[in-house]
Design brief:
With 142 residues, this protein is of the alpha/beta class. 37% of the residues lie in helices and 21% in strands. It has a 5-stranded mixed beta sheet with strand order 2-1-3-4-5. Helix 4 links the parallel strand 3 and strand 4. Helix 1 runs parallel beside helix 5 and helix 3 runs parallel beside helix 4. It is globular, with a radius of gyration of 14 Å. The N and C termini lie far apart (28 Å).
């Protein structure tokens, strides 16, 4: 989670919403990414999407069954869908997102009967630091 938090700080410094992600395969960090929708002119360039893409390329496959995803904010519906399609084994996230999250809030994507894969979910890892980054980022813009 430390590397995901560092990536979130990098995102904030670049003017992006401070969300970072790290994907771990068998105990080794395979990929780290920060939110980059503005920089890449791509609304799908959330940290989770970027790290899943990078890890899949590194492993040479689309299934990430033996991987753990660490992300600083509860994933949205798009990212939860990608996590399910990639067959990520475990999801660890920091701050809850009552407005845009889709794991414990909103759509509760993994609880839907149409969801084909449900990772183990562990919420609250690094929650305080993740939330502080987000609050600080948005407070500076108000």
């Amino acid at each position: 989670m430390r590397q995901a938090l560092d990536a979130a700080r990098d995102a904030a410094a670049a003017g992006e919403v401070p969300v970072g992600a790290a994907l771990v395969h068998r105990g080794a960090v395979l990929a780290v990414a920060a939110n980059a929708p503005r920089a890449l002119c791509d609304p799908t360039a959330h940290a989770e999407m970027l790290v899943i893409r990078a890890a899949a390329r590194a492993l040479g496959r689309d299934r990430l069954e033996e991987c753990d995803l660490y992300v600083t904010l509860e994933p949205c519906a798009m990212c939860a869908g990608a996590i399910a399609h990639a067959r990520v084994a475990r999801l660890y996230y920091g701050a809850d997102d009552p407005k845009g999250g889709a794991v414990e809030h909103g759509a509760r994507f993994f609880a839907q009967p149409t969801c084909h894969h449900r990772p183990e979910v562990f919420a609250g890892l690094g929650a305080r630091e993740s939330a502080e980054l987000l609050r600080g980022f948005f407070a500076a813009r108000r």
